[in-house]
Amino acid sequence: MSDTKEPSGAQKTLGNFAPKLVELTDDILFGDVWERKGLSKRERSLITVSSLIAGGNTEQLKFHLNFAKENGLSEEELIEAITHLAFYAGWPKAMSAITVAKEIFSKEK
Questions:
Q1: d(CA 31, CA 25)
Q2: Which part of the chain is CATH 1.20.1290.10?
Q3: Where does 40-109 sit in CATH, by number?
């Protein structure tokens, strides 16, 4: 049995290209911030998905929609959040986000 652990998503994506960013992502963002007790992971996921949509960050949205589902949000809730955000974050951002969601959710079926 090996003692090596599975590489993180950041390690898989960036490898040794940006080791400090990988370290900060793994240790601070996911190792500390996501583990704080003030909000549930479900709540953190909804906030994160909403922030990514508002910022137009669809590349990161791909991971976080799946992560949100792992953290207890349903596809219906995520679609409803995207629809709601159309009026606050902007129609084009919501349309881009719903296209990403459709792609991801359709692959799983």
A1: 8
A2: 40-109
A3: 1.20.1290.10
Q: How many CB atoms lie within 10 A of CB 60?
A: 13
3-state secondary structure of 76: helix
Contact 35, 9 (CB under 8 A): no
Q: Rounded to two decimals, what is the model's pTM?
A: 0.88
Q: What is the pLDDT of residues 60-88, one digit of tens each?
A: 999 999 999 999 999 999 999 999 999 99
Q: Taking every pair of C-alpha atoms in the chain, what is the biggest distance, in angstroms?
A: 52
* Cα dihedral sign, 45-34-60-102: negative
Terminal CA-CA length for the chain:
34
Looking at the predicted structure, is the pLDDT value of residue 109 above 80?
no
pLDDT at 108: 67
